[in-house]
Amino acid sequence: MTFLLFFLLVLSKSRADSFEEAYSDLEHYRTIYISENGPRLSVDTAQPKVISQRGGNATLQCKFNQDPSSPPNPKLRIKWTKLTSDYLKEIDVFVGMGFHKKSYGRFHGRVHLQDAGKNDASLVITDITLEDYGKYKCEIIDGLEDDTVVVSLDLQGIVFPYFPRLGRYNLNFADAENACRDQDAIVASFDQLYDAWRDGLDWCNAGWLSDGSVQYPITKPREPCGGKNTIPGVRNYGMRDKQKERYDVFCFTSNYKGRFYYLIHPFKLTYDEAVRACQKDGAKIAKVGQMYAAWKLQGYDRCDAGWLADGSVRYPISRPRRHCSPTEAAVRFSGFPDKKHKLYGVYCYKSDN
Q1: What is the pLDDT of residues 275-326, one digit of tens each?
Q2: How much of the chain is in helix, strand and coil states, percent to nearest 5?
Q3: Which cysteine pairs are joined by S-S bonds (predicted)?
Q4: Cα angle value 131/181/90 (rounded, 5°)
Q5: Could you tell me what percent of the chain has a pLDDT over 90?
Q6: Are 153 and 107 in contact (CB under 8 A)?
Q7: Pairing mode of beta strands 345-351, 258-262
């Protein structure tokens, strides 16, 4: 028994010596810090997702807690950034340190701290734009300590598929961004498209999303759209070449400050006549995004096909009835008619500004 115990002790020491020889260089570069009391700084939010609308205001909640034993730091810094849709970059929004505060870029003059208490770093965004949609990072920097939290700003609105007069699958990513912007919208995110699919959007043409992926929503599986034996869902082509590849686009728009209306006119109009008729009424010919917003968010309903700014002819139906989209509420699309010879009514938009 004594011999066995002596043998085990020798074996253990031999293995320990071997371990030290094999990993002797660890001590030159590996340092382990142990904190008995946990972090001296922590950042949190009571509301990780905030919902607003274009033209409205929103408060992104952010509060920090410090070690009570730590002395006040006049150089404590509050920094807000916006994450791009692909999460590869951060856009500066606001930085505050003591009495020094600065807002950046398109956020200049529209953001400020709520200042609801000593440890409040909440950010207030006013006159929200479509581009404000997304995720924001609140970062607190206190000397060598720092911590962050992410808050999402969502907007009430609607996703709609879009392609120009050139026809389907003619937009690279930059073209898609411009196409949505021209229709008073932005390129939709995956989350926005997913919510639209859950709300019933079904579209069998693939379109760009803001992260550079190409996808399309299917609620009623069928052969030309991934197969009729597949399950409903958002079909994903993955990330595509933004410059070379061409698809349609899914756009997103929200509330507007103005009046969308069908112009009562004694006779039907060519496209150029329609543009002038709206101008004579103190307005502009309406955009596709404005029609979708009026239809979805205000329940606008009109069974008269009319010109829109992109040269398309559409009409919004929120109350399905005979001869007016009898099966579903929808924005009906009549194509891109000949601008010089075809005659229709016109939808106008008059901004409050």
Answers
A1: 999 999 999 999 999 999 999 999 999 999 999 999 999 999 999 999 899 9
A2: 20, 35, 45
A3: 204-225, 303-324
A4: 30
A5: 79
A6: no
A7: antiparallel
